[in-house]
Amino acid sequence: MSKDPIKRKELASSVSPEANRSKKHNQEECSIQCQWCQLWVHSKCANLKDEECAILRKPSINLVFFCTTCAPNLDEALEFIEDNKTDKSVHSLVSKYDSLAQSVKDLSSKIESLFSRNSNLQMEIDSVSESTTTHTQPNEKPTSAATTLTILDELADRERRSKNLIVYNFREASDSKSDTPEIKDLIKSVFDLDVNLTKVARLGRRNESKPRPLLISLEDVLARGSILFQSGKLRNFDQHKNVYIAPDRTKME
């Protein structure tokens, strides 16, 4: 039997309509729809009691109804239903396969990212280890435990500073509270960034001859990188041409 819905429509239309079938459902009477011709049949014409009709119409009841006109074609109808179920099963399997393939792809990307982060971490450890060796006196032989602690402390310190920047030669107001809005205005006007600052503080003792360095801590590490990358734009502004921005580095760095 053809699976083509047009063919099915042709088969249904080839059945001569009867008086007991209708294209519209009568809300006032108990009627049931034929699963083949899609026409509605009154329960009495289908030799069904109203209770039986009501049960068959429940969505939770996994039963189908064929009218007396379509019943002779029951074998074809059942074959159509089975083919329909097969198509749905195949479609479901294909969807599950596509979903699984995407999950595997996502997992591969995460694994690749982890390998990359592990490689970067190893490079940082090697760098800190080399710095530690450089700062060790010639006759001094640090224990492995001490070296490990030094490396861990250094990595933790770098992590704490990872969102920090230090702004030099930025005008210092008499009221330290005004530093926050003023540095945010600079970042907006020069770099066109609206940033959230978690910390703003001057470093060292006040010096009347020049402004103290200004430590700022940003909420977003990407914004920090963008500011550093564009820091050369400060030279284009007369009021900021002597200002420069640097990362907050550890002593070993």
Summarize the structure.
The protein is 47% helix and 11% strand.
Q: What can you tell me about this protein's structure?
A:
The chain has helices at 5-14, 50-56, 74-135, 144-161, 179-191, 221-229, and strands spanning 21-22, 31-33, 40-42, 164-168, 197-202, 214-218, 244-247. With 253 residues, it is of the alpha+beta class. The chain folds into 3 domains: 5-69, Herpes Virus-1; 89-161; 162-247, RRM (RNA recognition motif) domain (Alpha-Beta Plaits). The longest helix is centred in the middle third of the chain and has 62 residues, at 74-135. The model is unreliable at 1-23 (pLDDT under 50).
Furnish the topology, listing elements before pairings.
Layout: H1 5-14, E1 21-22, E2 31-33, E3 40-42, H2 50-56, H3 74-135, H4 144-161, E4 164-168, H5 179-191, E5 197-202, E6 214-218, H6 221-229, E7 244-247
Antiparallel strand pairs: 1-3, 2-3, 4-6, 4-7, 5-6
Helix pairs in contact: 3-4
Instruction: Specify Rg, calculated over alpha carbons.
Output: 39 Å
CATH topology of the largest domain: Alpha-Beta Plaits
The structure class reads: alpha+beta
CATH class of the largest domain: Alpha Beta
Biggest beta sheet summary: 4 strands, antiparallel
Q: What is the strand tally? A: 7
Low-pLDDT runs: 1-23
How many helix segments?
Answer: 6
The CATH architecture of the largest domain would be 2-Layer Sandwich
What percent of residues adopt helix (DSSP H or I)? 40-55%
Mean pLDDT: 76
* Strand content range: 5-15%
Tell me the overall shape. elongated
Strand order of the largest sheet: 5-6-4-7
Structural domain count: 3
The SSE string, one letter per element, is: HEEEHHHEHEEHE
CATH superfamily of the largest domain: RRM (RNA recognition motif) domain
Distance between the termini: 78 Å
